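Handout, section B. The chain below has 199 residues.
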Amino acid sequence: MSALRRWIARVAVPFVVPFVLGGLTWVAWAANGDNPAVQAQQVLAELEAMRAGPALSGPPADGGADGVAAPAPVSMPALDAAAHAIGESKKALSRAGELRNVGDVARAEVAEDAALEWALAARDLVKGIELERKADEQAAAATSASSKATRARTLLEESIAKRAKLQQELDALDKEAEARALDAGPADAGKPNKKGGAK
């Protein structure tokens, strides 16, 4: 019997107890993962972090990564547009807490579900507005690039036309110079001989 006790003391307690406690921790975590109130609070915290901006939600002080992605930068108009949904979510969470304190669990769960829906609607609204803003920026950039290309094409056509006109003027001057040279006669006709006389 002492061998069994030693085995329990050496094997069962160090390995089984943490497993059981770890299992209980996992059950508690899983229960919170399905809890709409917790999910709503997480979404609201994410939206508040977006409002605070990346400067306040920067990397941790120890310089290491904490495994949580920083929220994407969001424009204030997007957050302002979602303010109503955020407020409704907070009201529903508050109401759920009051109902739980009174003991009305069924209505508290309904209020928590409503809070989660409002929070998700606010997050989706912010994302939608941000996508629309980015699309507008890209459309403006495309329009700007198109107008720059049109201006460059126009300048190129003008330069080609100017070059053609200048080439025509040069050709006309060359013809005129040839005509003058022919009218003047041969180049050595008017030169005196070495003997002093003209040919």
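Note. The two ends are 149 Å apart (CA to CA). Compare this with the example in section A.
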